[in-house]
Specification:
The protein is of the alpha/beta class and about 325 residues long. Helices cover about 35% and strands about 15% of the residues. The chain contains 10 helices and 9 strands. The strands form 2 sheets. Strands 1, 2, 3, 4, 5 and 6 form a 6-stranded parallel sheet that branches. β3, α2 (about 90-100) and β4 form a beta-alpha-beta unit.
């Protein structure tokens, strides 16, 4: 079976030990009860994973900092514990070195900008701790702005934190950001940003998905977009019957010119997945499916790893 040379996944919740993923095993990255585990990653595919520390909306201020620190310590502990199979990475060179050593490349990220606790000085602190991307908001509000539960745009702090993130080498992630906040971001962002796990709203109307205008603007700015496997972001009724449902989203992005901007953002261990994308091995089979539908090897490689690899090389120091 033909597979991609490599696979880069821009978002999973596997690291964080909380109600969606908690199984009582502190070794979250190699827990057989989780969808994604180091042992489940196919040995013949170079894999890079963004491991997000998910911070619930109710955790704010010092509680958010403490929540992040607990899970960051877990990440660092597991990087040491499983050092024969995984390596922490901060840029494309690190990732490629991990692959050359036969290891999974692990990037530390955060889902929810509450990690900054409204303090601009914390951006450098978090960057120095190795975080390479931060999702500005989750579903509700934080000090930066709001997700889809309100229509509030970026706060004054949010308009300051974006340039500081760009300065400190943290990629801005707009997945979860509402439409007003996205429009505000376009006014201040000077560097390419990501939507690590978002699909096309034209095909699935959930507010978490990107509009065509958003997609076109992200293409214009050389941004990166990760396809999300969550059933409710693939189909309005959540009834995903097979790989055709995610293929349709990929082709819609291509129609809007995103051939060089599209990647994968599974949402492993943080969402209900369709059976066809329910394991790392099954995801690799999407590569051959793309080829069977007439997608070129160049474009399939782009989705699976090349577009993200190029983005990292340009935007991560």
């Amino acid at each position: 079976m033909k597979k991609s040379f490599a696979l880069i996944d821009l978002h999973c919740d596997t690291l964080t030990d909380w109600k969606y993923t908690s199984t009582g095993n502190p070794d979250t990255l190699d827990d057989p009860k989780r969808v994604l585990s180091l042992s489940a990653i196919p040995a013949d595919v170079h894999w890079a994973q963004f491991f997000a520390v998910f911070i619930p909306d109710e955790e704010r201020g010092q509680r958010a900092i403490d929540y992040f620190e607990f899970n960051r310590a877990s990440f660092e502990h597991q990087m040491r514990q499983f050092a024969d199979r995984v390596a922490p990475c901060r840029n494309a060179d690190d990732m490629e070195a991990a692959w050359a050593a036969g290891k999974t490349a692990a990037f530390l990220t955060v889902e929810n900008g509450s990690v900054f606790a409204g303090d601009l000085n914390r951006v450098k602190t978090v960057a120095d701790q190795g975080v390479r991307a931060v999702t500005l908001v989750w579903n509700g509000e934080n000090e930066i702005g709001s997700g889809h539960t309100t229509d509030h745009g970026l706060s004054e702090f949010g308009k300051k934190v974006v340039p500081e993130m760009e300065k400190q080498n943290i990629i801005v992630d707009v997945s979860h950001l509402n439409d007003h906040g996205f429009a505000d971001l376009l006014e201040i962002a000077e560097k390419p940003f990501m939507a690590t796990h978002s699909n096309a709203r034209a095909l699935c109307a959930h507010k978490r998905n990107l509009t065509d205008d958003m997609i076109r603007e992200m293409v214009r700015r050389d941004c990166l977009i990760g396809l999300n496997y969550f059933v409710k972001f693939l189909a309005d009724d959540g009834n995903v019957k097979g790989l055709d449902d995610i293929y349709r989203h990929a082709m819609h992005f291509f129609e809007l010119g995103a051939n060089k901007n599209l990647a994968l953002g599974s949402d492993f261990d943080g969402a209900v997945l369709p059976e066809c994308l329910s394991t790392p091995t099954k995801v690799t089979e999407f590569y051959e499916y793309l080829l069977s539908r007439g997608v070129s090897e160049e474009d399939a490689d782009g989705i699976f790893y090349r577009n993200a690899q190029n983005f990292f090389r340009k935007n991560l120091r």
